[in-house]
Amino acid sequence: MxxxxxxxxxxxxxxxxxxxxxxxxxxIIKKLKExxxxxxxxxxxxxxxxxxxxxxxxxxxxxKDNTASSVPVGQxxxxxxxxxxxxxxxxxxxxxCVYGISDNLATNVFAQSGKCxxxxxxxxxxxxxxxxxxxxxxxxxxYPRKVDLQNVEKLKKFEKTTVVLSIQELEKHIEKRKxxxxxxxx
Length: 186
Description:
Number of helices: 6
CATH topology: Rossmann fold
CATH architecture: 3-Layer(aba) Sandwich
Number of strands: 8
Distance between the termini: 13 Å
Largest sheet: 6 strands, parallel
Structural class: alpha/beta
Radius of gyration: 16 Å
CATH superfamily: Flavin prenyltransferase-like
Strand content: 15-25%
């Protein structure tokens, strides 16, 4: 496979309303170069709750969920993204993605990235029957429902979608993707 240098491609990252590993996800976002951030309405609230709103670098272009037709998803048809990262992703967003519902910015980005054959790394919040997660006021126990866990399993069958089950796996897959991109794009 030969290198493709026609368009300078970027990372696309979607934040949803999940607080599960939210701080850690922001830390990873801040380390990536050439990234656009897609922020759902719920994620805007979470950014405030976790006091992260002002921590994002000014170099990151932020698309907010403020149009009925999710206008920013048109960016995928311009071919400017090499990878989509959905992290952390709420059970609501997972369910909508699994059933093909694209009624907000986050779910539209996922749908359009699939239609444009953009690789996706997807980190759902509900990955095990029992979890401990950090809330704005400390750690809490969470017990995902059976349907939430089933939806994660269904998501694993999507084309060009790698589902990761931990923040460590997310970091590992991003690093693997960087190596692949360096070999074929940069």
